[in-house]
Write the structure tokens for this entry.
Amino acid sequence: MRRRDVVALLDGAAAAWPVPARAQDIQRVRRIGMLQTLAADDPEGHTRNAAFFRELERLGWADGLNVRIDLRSAAGQSDTIRSYATELVALIPDVILAYGASTVAPELQVTRAGPIVFPVVGDPVSAGFVDSLARPGGNVTGFMTSDPAQGKCSKTGDLT
């Protein structure tokens, strides 16, 4: 086979291959479900959520652009918390942020699959949310607000 024949064969084969479409690089929008016991108009909730949103933006995440945040405020009503827990899981978020033991427990009743993060829980081991502090296991992790062995607040749980 001559050199010209090899080049012609390769050119013909290359022309027959489909040209991949040059689609825009579309980033998948992540979804965060947030469940809090405070009322929607509670000043403490506004302060806490504003700090969370600012940190997300600092890290390059913008609500409505590359992340969608579904916030539910239950105003301390246990029936509402359970209803919102079910609703958030149905949205199939990438992560659920659950404030306090009263929100983590209902989330765990609804799902054992999606990741649940709690920024504030007194003792997640005795509450049955995690197996141990060193190895939480399951789909739940977060920060405790106190050290049960020493009876004082832990720095990792301090949100102020």
User: Anything to note?
Assistant: The chain has four helices and seven strands. The CA atoms of residues 61 and 67 lie 6 Å apart. The first helix runs from residue 3 to 16. Residues 6-17, 21-25, 152-160 have pLDDT under 50 and may be disordered.
